[in-house]
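All the exercises in this workshop are built on plain-text protein records. The record below serves as our worked example for the rest of this section.
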Amino acid sequence: MSLTLATCRIIADTALATGREKGMKPLGIVIVDARGSVRLTLVEDGNALLRPDIAHGKAFGCVAVGVGGRALERMAKERPHFIGALGGLSRDRLTPVPGGVLIRNAEGVLLGAVGVSGDTSDNDEVCALAGIAAAGLKADTGE
């Protein structure tokens, strides 16, 4: 199974709807496939200039390292030189904070990742989780 455009739309649309229901700030959402290629980018009106880039860094970082955003955040705290090196290797396309969530199928196969940015990292993650669940897929936050 791959991340079809229809599946990406379910994830992104549900993530945006969740943000609106919870009164969050405007969100930017980027979904990448298992190789890090962008499948979908959606940016709400009023989203700050760099938020889509941050969302991309969250999603890309997750698939690049193979762990969720919470694991990347732990690595950044525990092994800052390692994460710094990964930042350079990825041409600064790595944002090691929550809000980046791996997307897996029922068998646990990695399909890609979603990155959400615009509110707090914890709230961004809530939106990503809602989107992945709505698509009937498994989320991996790196918890």
About this structure: The mean pLDDT is 94. The radius of gyration is 13 Å. The chain has one domain: 5-140. The helical segments are 5-21, 51-65, 69-78, 80-89, 121-134.
